[in-house]
Amino acid sequence: MAQSILIIDDEILTLNNLKRALEKDAYEILLADSGEAGITIFKQHRPNLVLIDLMLPGINGIEVLKQIKEIDSNTIVIMITAYEILEKAVESMKLGAYDYLLKPFKLNDLKASVARALELQSLKIRVSETVAHEKGKYYFDRITANNKKMIDVLNTARKVAMLEKTTVLITGESGVGKGMLARAIHYNSPRADEPFIEINCAAIPDNLLESELFGYEPGAFTDARRRKIGLMERADHGTIFLDEIADMSLPLQAKALKVIEEQSFVRLGGTQHIKINVRIITATNKNLKIAIDNNEFREDLYYRLNVVPIAIPPLRERVDDIIPMVLVFIKDLNHELHRSYTGISEQAASNLKDYMWPGNVRELRNIIERIMALHDTDEIVVEHLPQEIRAPSQKSTPAVLRETSEKQELIPLSDLETRYIKQILRYTNGNKSMAAKILGIHPTSLFRKLKNIK
Fold it and tell me: Does 130 fall in a domain?
């Protein structure tokens, strides 16, 4: 169905010219030659967007804008004005107009403004259509938490969710559920009916990340042929979630800090400061204090983000949550995969609890989904589990210790420590932060030990 535009202008030639120009872009056009007629047509047809000339006989454009906003505050209105009464255009913006165009304007400028406005309206409609579903999906009660550490995490998240502007820094290993917790905070907050915008700072090259966040104006760079609305602007009145914030470059960190502090920014290639009202939630699987020491992360940005820190524990530290999670996954996947699993055997459950889970909750869910996809039975048993989980006795004893025991080899303690550290690093695929946690030492201590290991 074509989007509809109501044009209110007392000049018949202008009405007809705008009608012809906009109909070429497949819009449905409604015309009114006075403010009174425009309000009547608006009540009857409820168009997606209204173009209003400020200088109208009878009811002027400002009054028409006020009445339209009283009827439907979500309607997008663009004002048309002459340079001589520019202050009226500014007044109209304060009353809720989306944009204004100065006469004489180019048709391409008009079309660009209309397209941007309708794009934002479409985003708001999509957000409102999915909010009810997302709220249900991200209730705090749907996050499994029998473990004391995880209960504390959810209690903190519930409290901070109601603090509308407070920034939150979520930390934890890859796969612990940082993104899910960020969504739960948003969808249980006063901003729940507004956009939740997520961007992974590690997944986008730095030069593209800046344009994705802030948008750009035509001509900002070679391929910038028209204005792009950035994610910060799309998240206005809602929440923007910056995942893997530690992977953002230092220059971009400086810009992000300024946006957080001033709640405004300038598009690439632009000059106009765009005011926004967004909540910032960030997440990382890295130790930001170490990144600061290594001059990889700005200390001032860290303190600005770390207003409310929430550290999600790894799955191996919340063993009592593993089987309840499995049962939730089974219930959800029974519906998705058309299966009829009733549960998990006692031995399989024991093996799952003995495993170290380097991939955390994401790894657990993936394994359960793989089992249920490949085996059409009524219960998860040990034979369904991957080899590394089926042999917990081998996994629970570090290989270096098994080697020493089997060969009856007597070696210096320092050599044994070196072998063990290397074994753990192989186990974590080189993830030093995870290795430090398994070893029970501070990452700085591990880095110091690694310097002495050849």
Answer: no
